Amino acid sequence: MLRLVNLELQKLLLSRTNIILIFISFILPFTVLILSSIKINFFGFFTMELGELGIFNFPIIWHITTFFASYFKFFFAIVVVSMIGNEYSNKTIKQNLIDGLSKKEFILSKFYTIIFFSLVATVLIAVASFFIGLYYSSYTEASIIFRETEFLLAYFIKLVGFFTLCLFFAMLLKRSAFALAFLFVLYIVEWLIYWGAYNILGSSEAAFKVKGFLPLESMYNLIDQPFQRLMITKFPDKADLAYDYAVHWYEIAIVLAWIAILVFLSLKLLKKRDL
After folding, report:
1. What's the total number of domains in the chain?
2. Which uninterrupted H or E stretch holds 90?
3. At what angle do helices 73-89 and 2-12 cross, to 10 degrees?
4. Domain that holds residue 170
5. Which pLDDT does position 37 carry in this prediction?
6. How far is CA 125 from CA 151, 204, 218, in A?
7. What is the rounded (10 degree) CA torsion for 10, 15, 20, 21?
8. How would you class 213 by CB atoms within 10 Å of its CB: exposed for 0-12, middle for 13-18, buried for 19 or more?
9. What stretches of 103-149 show up as alpha helix (H) in DSSP?
10. Beta-carbon neighbour count of residue 265 at 10 Å?
11. Per-residue pLDDT in tens (0 to 9) along the chain, 275 residues
């Protein structure tokens, strides 16, 4: 595994564009640090500091930071699709196989690299969230500080799932731009399936359950939006705002199943394709 990751890192670090994109994908999630220190002046009457509103208290901070950080995954998605696009455009994929790398090892080298970068991104956001929470949170008990850290696991799996989907599209289409565009096509297809399920089942809730088994929606469902939760903390009497924001095992299982399917299909494509 380490040999394959090291091989892939050597390829990635030869490209200045990839280095910049990787740097951006790791740095941008840290904008939450800037967000926590923002002070908004309301025409000189009073100043509101976001960090003082309680949104960075433990344990809710794990939910908030992972939710917002997940939106920066598109920068590394460009790196993922370029890993495949460059292999085809530069004809290095054939050379790798000639040099003794099996087709299975070729796909695994990409997948292990995805896991590696997803793990690094998760560790970074965990460290950032921990120190922001220590600074702003009024809770210091370990049981509260480390409660809901399952959002970090959900964040990691969400990244691996999304990047594996990008890997599959890149293998399918052989072109970076087309692979990224196909993500938008899949987004539209999933909504068409939703509307089809809605017309058949006659229920929005049932249709969303069907949509929840699809790749993009299942990945999104791993970390629900935290806005209603923030409203509940400020207005606890608003019972109508209550919703289930927890990370569920079956949501993780669905994404893990898609990861396995996408890696398998990527390998099948490579085995059947004439290089």
Report:
1. 1
2. none
3. 90
4. 2-272
5. 56
6. 11, 34, 22
7. -80
8. middle
9. 103-136, 142-145
10. 15
11. 777 777 777 777 777 777 887 777 777 766 666 665 555 554 554 444 555 566 788 888 899 889 988 888 888 888 888 877 777 777 777 777 766 778 888 889 889 999 999 999 999 899 988 988 888 777 778 888 999 999 999 999 999 999 999 999 988 887 777 888 889 999 999 999 999 999 999 889 999 999 999 999 999 999 998 878 777 766 666 666 677 789 999 999 999 999 999 999 999 998 887 65
Calpha distance 184→244 (Å, rounded): 28
| Coil, strand or helix at 58 | coil
User: And the tokens for 163?
Assistant: 């990047």
The residue type of 14 is L
Rounded distance between C-alpha atoms, residue 138 and residue 48, angstroms: 18
Question: For residue 207, which phi and psi values (nearest 5 degrees)?
Answer: -65, -40
Question: What is the SS3 string spanning the chain?
Answer: CHHHHHHHHHHHCCCHHHHHHHHHHHHHHHHHHHHHHCEEEECCCEEEEHHHHCCCCCCHHHHHHHHHHHHHHHHHHHHHHHHHHHHHHCCHHHHHHHCCCCHHHHHHHHHHHHHHHHHHHHHHHHHHHHHHHHHHCCCCCHHHHCCCCHHHHHHHHHHHHHHHHHHHHHHHHCCHHHHHHHHHHHHHHHHHHHHHHHHHHCCHHHHHHHHCCCHHHHHHCCCCCCHHHHHHHHCCCCHHHCCCCCCCHHHHHHHHHHHHHHHHHHHHHHHHCCC
Q: How many CA atoms lie within 13 A of 201 on its CB side?
A: 15
Question: 251, 214, 7, 209: which is closest to 108 by C-alpha?
Answer: 7
